[in-house]
Amino acid sequence: MPRRGLGLEPPRWLERLAVESGSAALEKAVHGDALEPPAIAELVAEAPLHALAAAADYYARTVKRGVGSYTVNLYLTYTNVCVTACSFCAFYRPPGSRGAYTRSPGELAAVARLAWERLGVREIHVVGGNNPELGLDYYVELVRRLREAAPGAVLKMFTAEEIIFISRTSGEPVSRVLEELREAGLQALPGGGIEVLDPQVQRLIAPRKAPPGEWLRVHEEAHRLGIRSNAIMMYGHVEEPIHVARHLYELARLEERAPGLVSFIPVRFSPGNTALGRTRLYRERARRDAVYDLRVIAAARLALLGRVDNIVSYWVSLGDKLAVAGLMHGANDLGGTFYNEAVIGASRGRPTAGKSPGELVYMLLQAGWRPAERDTFYRYHPPARPVASNTPWLRELTAA
């Protein structure tokens, strides 16, 4: 890949620190040189943490001008019925099984309307399982109903995996599926649907999913149609540093081919009551230490520098203290309030209640950022008045 046009020159102290670290990859990174997978893997696994953290934090605060952010968002799941049966997922239920559900567009719109009116949510985040009983008309109606219910909120809906599944079950090409959803009101794709952009890893943890190349092509097509997207990476299971590196490299290449990525969200695997968490392979290969989390965040900042400006320290999977530390290792954002997050919550046996804006502001202040509320596309707004997370009506909403 070509050298990145950052328009930034590293300060002398950072150049010296990189040289003294003995890491050739870190020296290249601080000067804006594009990184190939072996160099990114060196950052993840070998570069001295203090120097890696200093470089990532410096560029995060420089690129974002000291503004750390969050959004007020609601997390909705329309169905937990799924035929893909990923080993890392405790959320899905096979068709016809106990606990399986599919919610109507009207039900979800009622929750969204309440969140819009009482919380002033800026984003509705919607995902679900691969349910063969749902046709394209269901998804189009769902988007339309949510648009009517929360007219000022950004609709961030359906992972690339879901788009691929809708395409296959409906017989419509991916481009047509995206066009119909866009016309109904879809504005952005969330980043899920792939765990690590490496076929070897996918065969081990999610063999029924569409291959990484198809996931990338959906995002590329979405960007072509004016639908921006995000990208996650679920790590901390069976991957090695080189797999993390390949994932970041592929995202950088995607952004070169078809710009449109809004943010990168590293998500720590939550083993909980998942099938993968009970395997010998996970017990032998998983990296569970917090230093690894911080290395992944820092390496992501440097590998994507000049291409993806927003790196999320995802409190839902990291916990509060580690998420704050992530904000000092290259991340600039906490994601959002995530009222009613259900997928990671399922591995723990309960939905994530969410956080108030005030809690997220405090976490940003702890890490030395100037807090700002944002929308999905990182347009900033003054922080909203905090909403207490123990408010009775909010408890009812997040239990819906």
Description:
Residues 387-395 have low confidence and may be disordered. The protein has a single domain (59-399), classed as Aldolase class I (TIM Barrel, Alpha-Beta Barrel). It is of the alpha/beta class and 400 residues long. The radius of gyration is 20 Å and the shape is globular. Strand 3 (123-127), helix 6 (136-149) and strand 4 (154-157) form a beta-alpha-beta unit. The chain is built from 18 helices and 11 strands.
Q: Assign an overall shape.
A: globular
Structural class by helix and strand composition: alpha/beta
Share of β-strand residues: 5-15%
Rg calculated over all Cα atoms: 20 Å
- Looking across the biggest beta sheet, what order are the strands in? 9-1-10-11
CATH architecture: Alpha-Beta Barrel
Short description, anyone?
The chain has 18 helices and 11 strands. It is an alpha/beta fold.
Could you give the topology of this structure?
Elements (H helix, E strand, L loop, with lengths): L11 H10 L2 H7 L6 H9 L3 H15 L3 E5 L1 E5 L27 H15 L3 E5 L8 H14 L4 E4 L2 H11 L3 H11 L3 E2 L9 H7 L6 H13 L3 E8 L5 H17 L3 E8 L11 H6 L4 H14 L6 E2 L3 H4 L1 H7 L6 E4 L6 H6 L8 H10 L3 E5 L5 E2 L10 H8 L1
Parallel strand pairs: 1-9, 1-10, 2-3, 3-4, 5-6, 6-7, 7-8
Antiparallel strand pairs: 10-11
